[in-house]
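Revision sheet: structure tokens.
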Amino acid sequence: MKIKLDENIGGSGADFLRRNGHEVATIREQGLAGAADERVYRACIAEGRALITLDRDFGQVPRFPPKQSAGIVILELGGPASLDRLRDRPRDFLALAQTRSLVGELWIVEPGRVRVHLERDDET
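Predicted:
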């Protein structure tokens, strides 16, 4: 899977995903650190990359429609940020990604569960 990691996820997250066979580009590596969310979203679409982020703003479906993307994953740490929590969420993401396609979907990965945003027919 082609993935773009937001700047709020460190190098260990990128290393973990790469070790698990994914093609990972990071916001920092691509010179997009500090870029507006809209620019990051458009870059993901242009590159065909799923976005993995801690930024809840990407959960605003009208602003960042997942159906136009390779997928959006928001990692919820479930408490104060820690290295253990930051390592657990990508593992949870990968477990679901082995059984379901992320393309065009929004996933909220929380401790113990993954919520998948299902688009209703009447949404634009």
